[in-house]
């Protein structure tokens, strides 16, 4: 039986918006952006779970909740059976050590005034990973691990290319010997060939070090390639989750279907085959009632406008949140 | 066309001998990695590169040469006959002016329409690019639009003066796939309706496959392969194109090692003497390090700059 490292239970996150003058005068309550609307998922030890969805759907918010950069409004994240947002757990830094995050922008996530060596040493010191005289040796080891030359430790971030910077970010995350890595669009800013190098490195490190990875990205091909399981998020809700190959080759939720077919195929003969999705992601400010996707869905009916569909197992393919999943997939 | 930038006494050849043509209604894709010269090509065509660098060669536009054209004359063409869409819909609109004003500004500069007619035309353009309730939205500021909608506004502004050539610099890179599909559809549809030529810069081979008629692959400031999309993507002949195709994770067993072209692109101040790709190329032969391979026709409609191009059979295998 697979064991869950991280259990996310019904996570909600609402950001209050400032009340405008008009709101105050008319006594209207402040508006609220609902970034996450009840996300539940288990992250199993040693797996890579891909998270896909359009921008603004809550992918990054979820990642940030997991590393406690945001405090959820409701719900819990359990690590080793304990809720990480408990008062007792909040002050416990070992969680921060064991779950590490890597960010999208390699230009702003490294301190421009610190050399690579200092960046890595800082991580080691904060978590007391090595005695003071062992830090240099560990920095050297980390650079080897991510295949950067030893002289890199004396250089500043601006002397590196985007791909090299992401290697530094990986080294910094690995410095504290984490069990779980959260990769938020780690390679999105890189060219395909550099992307390939960084992804290869990540996959190798994962199997060498037995890491669990939450891989957040909008590049569907890449997510398919690296993930064991994938969750599709729409407006702060998981609409489908399941085995990566099954989901990508045979998506069940109408949104997953549309999202996957919107990714341009490499084959010029596929032209015009994509099912086009009309409209845009509704604003999380005015969340439509019912299924979050109903306004853009071809199959939407009355019930979709009123009731939020539950995420339920579907034909052994994973879990799908759709009222009409059976009819939709019966035609296929 | 060649474009050279200068940095503290050093010449950086950003573009070297780039030649291509676009006809009416044709969509040409320019692909390559960052720094390969795609955007500089567009900026050199429309004269935006001249302030920063030295553009030589010829850009022939309806019988006239744009490279040597005085700024004043060029401004008559910029925006009116040749329009450009930039990559960042977030930063290429003026945040202090309403969208309507920015649209009308273009019309004021390039047409003789009256004030009322300009306003009607602005509404018509927003309708055309699929922005709902266009009339009300003219009064909105850029921050009140989403990324996809802002890019539509950019397209509306670019197309307001009915240009004959559209230069699109990564118009969808900052957008989500579902919105990307909508925007590309829109550009294609408008190109067809207005019989407009399009040069589409992108780094996404999928976008090329789904939208372009012809494609030119750029590497270190040169075109290394050029031809109809179908042929180039299905049977690439230049080793760099082959490498680029292979590094896209598709049709691969999951979680296996991804292919990546070994090495890194050369820096512009240290270009190798021969073929710029030679140091990274597996098919490199002796002459590659000595001479620069010219872009030459190897089969019908296909130009490749390589002394040892991949044969059709090998291309299939890759």
TrEMBL record, chain A:
Keywords: ATP-binding, Nucleotide-binding, Transport. The keyword ATP-binding applies. This is Oligopeptide transport ATP-binding protein OppF. Gene3D superfamilies: P-loop containing nucleotide triphosphate hydrolases. The gene is oppF_1. Signal peptide: none annotated. Belongs to the ABC transporter superfamily. The keyword ATP-binding applies. It holds the Pfam family oligo_HPY. One of its GO terms (cellular component) is plasma membrane. It is found in: Cell inner membrane. Residues 6-260 form the ABC transporter domain. One of its GO terms (molecular function) is ATP binding.
Automatic annotation (TrEMBL), chain B:
Keywords: ATP-binding, Cell membrane, Membrane, Nucleotide-binding, Transport. Residues 3-245 form the ABC transporter domain. GO terms for biological process: peptide transport; transmembrane transport. One of its GO terms (cellular component) is plasma membrane. One of its GO terms (molecular function) is ATP binding. The keyword Mitochondrion does not apply. InterPro entries: AAA+_ATPase, ABC_Ni/Peptide_Import, ABC_transporter-like_ATP-bd, ABC_transporter-like_CS, Oligopep_ABC_C, P-loop_NTPase. SUPFAM superfamilies: P-loop containing nucleoside triphosphate hydrolases. Gene3D superfamilies: P-loop containing nucleotide triphosphate hydrolases. It is a peripheral membrane protein. NCBIfam families: oligo_HPY. Belongs to the ABC transporter superfamily. This is Oligopeptide transport ATP-binding protein OppD. It comes from Ruegeria meonggei. The lineage of its organism: Bacteria, Pseudomonadati, Pseudomonadota, Alphaproteobacteria, Rhodobacterales. The gene is oppD_1.
């Amino acid at each position: 039986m697979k064991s869950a490292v991280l259990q996310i239970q019904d996570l909600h996150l609402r950001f209050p918006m400032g009340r405008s003058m008009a709101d105050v005068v008319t006594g209207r309550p402040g508006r609220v952006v609902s970034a996450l609307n009840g996300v539940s998922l288990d992250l199993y030890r040693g797996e890579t779970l891909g998270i896909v969805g359009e921008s603004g759907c809550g992918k990054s918010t979820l990642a940030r909740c997991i590393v406690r950069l945001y405090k959820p409004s409701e719900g819990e994240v359990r690590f080793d059976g304990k809720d990480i947002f408990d008062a007792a757990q909040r002050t416990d830094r070992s969680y921060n050590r064991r779950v590490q995050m890597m960010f999208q922008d390699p230009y702003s996530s490294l301190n421009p005034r610190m050399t690579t060596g200092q960046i890595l040493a800082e991580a080691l010191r904060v978590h007391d990973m090595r005695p003071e005289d062992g830090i240099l040796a560990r920095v050297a080891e980390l650079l080897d691990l991510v295949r950067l030359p030893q002289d890199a430790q004396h250089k500043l971030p601006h002397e590196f290319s985007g791909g090299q910077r992401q290697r530094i970010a990986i080294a910094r995350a690995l410095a504290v010997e984490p069990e779980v890595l959260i990769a938020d669009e780690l390679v999105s800013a890189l060219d395909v060939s550099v992307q390939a190098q960084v992804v290869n490195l990540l996959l190798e490190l994962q199997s060498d070090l037995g890491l669990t990875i939450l891989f957040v990205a909008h590049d569907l091909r890449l997510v398919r390639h690296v993930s064991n399981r994938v969750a599709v998020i729409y407006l702060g809700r998981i609409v489908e989750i399941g085995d990566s190959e099954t989901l990508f080759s045979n998506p069940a939720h109408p949104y997953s279907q549309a999202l996957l077919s919107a990714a341009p195929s490499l084959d010029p003969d596929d032209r015009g085959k994509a099912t086009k999705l009309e409209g845009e992601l509704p604003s999380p400010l005015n969340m439509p009632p019912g299924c979050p996707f109903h306004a853009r869905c071809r199959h939407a009916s009355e019930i979709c406008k009123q009731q939020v569909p539950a995420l339920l197992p579907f034909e052994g393919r994973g879990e799908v949140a759709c009222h009409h999943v059976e009819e939709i997939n019966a035609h296929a | 066309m060649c474009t050279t930038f200068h940095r503290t006494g050093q010449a950086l050849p950003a573009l070297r001998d780039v030649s291509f043509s676009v006809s009416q209604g044709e969509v040409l894709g320019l692909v390559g990695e960052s720094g390969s010269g795609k955007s500089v090509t567009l900026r050199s065509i429309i004269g935006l590169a001249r302030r920063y660098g030295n553009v030589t060669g010829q850009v022939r536009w309806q019988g006239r040469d744009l490279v040597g054209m005085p700024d004043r004359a060029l401004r008559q063409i910029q925006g009116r006959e040749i329009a450009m869409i930039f990559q960042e819909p977030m930063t290429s609109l003026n945040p202090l002016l309403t969208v309507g004003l920015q649209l009308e500004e273009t019309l004021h500069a390039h047409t003789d329409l009256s004030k009322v007619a300009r306003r009607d035309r602005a509404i018509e353009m927003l309708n055309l690019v699929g922005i709902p309730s266009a009339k009300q939205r003219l009064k909105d500021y850029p921050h009140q639009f989403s990324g996809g909608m802002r890019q539509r506004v950019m397209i509306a502004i670019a197309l307001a003066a009915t240009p004959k050539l559209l230069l699109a610099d990564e118009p969808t890179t900052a957008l989500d796939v579902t919105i990307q599909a909508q925007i590309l559809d829109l550009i294609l549809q408008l190109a067809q309706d207005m019989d407009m030529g399009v040069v589409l810069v992108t780094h996404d081979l999928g976008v090329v496959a789904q939208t372009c008629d012809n494609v030119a692959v750029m590497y270190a400031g040169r075109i290394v392969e050029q031809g109809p999309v179908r042929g180039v993507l299905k049977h690439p002949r230049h080793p760099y194109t082959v490498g680029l195709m292979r590094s896209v994770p598709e049709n691969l067993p999951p979680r296996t090692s991804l292919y990546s072209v070994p090495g890194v692109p050369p820096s512009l101040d240290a270009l190798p003497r021969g073929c710029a790709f030679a140091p990274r190329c597996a098919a490199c032969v002796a002459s590659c390090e000595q001479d620069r391979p010219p872009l030459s026709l190897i089969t019908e409609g296909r130009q490749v700059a390589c002394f040892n191009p991949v044969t059709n059979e090998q291309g299939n295998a890759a």
